[in-house]
Structure prediction request, 591 residues.
Amino acid sequence: MDPCINLKNVVAIILCCSSVLMTCITCTKINLQPNIVLIMADDLGIGDIGCYGNDTIRTPNIDRLAKEGVMLTHHIAAAPLCTPSRAAFLTGRYPIRSGMDNGYRVRVLLFVGGSGGLPKNETTFASILQNQGYATGIIGKWHLGVNCETRNDYCHHPLSHGFDYFYGTPFTNVNDCKPGERSGILVDYQATLGVATEALGTGLLMLLVLRWAGFANVGWKTIVWLAVSCLLFFGSWYSVFGFLRRWNCLVMRNLEVVQQPSNSETLSARMTEEALAFIKRNQKKPFLLFVSLLHVHTPFFTTKAFIGKSKHGSYGDNVEEMDWHVGQIVNGINNAGLANKTLIYFTSDHGGEWDSVGTNGEREGGWNGIYRGKKGLAGWEGGIRVPGIFRWPGLLPSNKKIDEPTSLMDIYPTIANLAGASLPQDRVIDGRDLMPLLEGDAQGSVHEFLFHYCGNALTAARWNPKGSDSVWKAHFFTPKFEVGACYQSETCWCHGNHVSYHDPPLLFDLSKDPSEAHPLSPATEPLYHEIQSRIRSGVEEHRKTLTPVPLQLSWDNILWKPWLQPCCGTFPFCWCDEDSDDSNKLQGSDQ
Prediction:
């Protein structure tokens, strides 16, 4: 027998086996469909966690995630405020594409009973994974709307956006939810309306006195008409602002309101119980669980076990309690034997609000590390630089740091691809798959450009040239936050006298100056003009991809509409309370 023929046969067999093996490996990777657990903190500063440099607050559970996985140190939110950032996270798209940001004063949803919210035609990552056979659940904060035209249409509700199960608040944690705290919704408008009511009441009283003294010839019909008008004026605004705790602070399970007003002191514990129950009942099939924490948004509802335990006051106590809740969820995954089958991701929706001061005068803000700015302050790193930690034992490396520009929007294509799904082809997806970067197959950033908006106005852009270690960032305008309306305020406005415009744009090299302390000039950067020109070209290309959409955060959409208000019981007497120990509360959807 010809040995060459035997050799050819052997080679053919080897090639065939190799092809089959590679096909199996590829199929296994595509069909693996890992469980996905996404944990998002609220208002957490990147410098509040031990693994990101904090040595005064203890976060052992989050630090352990970083040690066992991959930590991103250049991770960026698409907006410095809750509603637009979360919309971008869920859709993988800049919030301007869905109308989920606004150029004027209001840049978040203010009422559960408003008509604005995440549009029905947006496709969330939950919808994509739901179509791939995943059980999908969200536990905690939503803040992306509920209804559009009627109290029960649920057009913006999580169950209308791909989630099988929802337990939590459709709104957010605000001062109005804590008895004794000052209101946090349009407080200047409330003050103006209160002064106007007092003026009307005083005027009416003076008119009565003058008529009684004979100095005013005014008929009783006129006085009655004025009195009724005064009462109607007072009632019209007090019915909104006087019952904010009832209107905005509520808990839903799926489409049902189960607690109104909410008991925020026990809500975080109930959320963790719900998360663990969701994991338990879905452990035999792939699942997506989005745990949207209320920590560390003010006001703080810290349990006694953590009060006074940190070195950073009430804020530090709340961060340490948040870390405990994260540990409970991670332990739930580990104890169920799902660690190697589960991708866990931890982040914050935006930066911390470092200048927040409570009613007792204590500072309640976080720490954004070396980064300039804060929550609500568009453009500067402190408002948008967030933690990003991934753990997947057996697939991702451990104790690895990556300092490449990435975005919260990248979670969308990353988990869609892991689930074996195709991305929507009828819209622009701004996120990029992170797995090649996380696994070490790619070295550079998945983004050449990232754009930063203040409302619906482009305020800054960062450019990471391919093959370069430099990250350039240009600010077209910056908020005036040292003094004025922005100082000690959650939201800095994006227009008029509230901002300073820069021509040419302020330019920084974030790879050398991450604190954005030293603007570059032609004298300090030889490539200054080329960099500015390339960023302008990138901005022009980006703007070509934008199309006009209805603004979901317009005044018409965010103001309270009683016919849209979720209510348990008979409106307006909305009240119900579900015992946190009720065993029925953990009976969720098994879809």
User: Anything to note?
Assistant: Residues 280 and 336 are 7 Å apart (CA to CA). Residues 3-31 form the longest helix (29 residues).
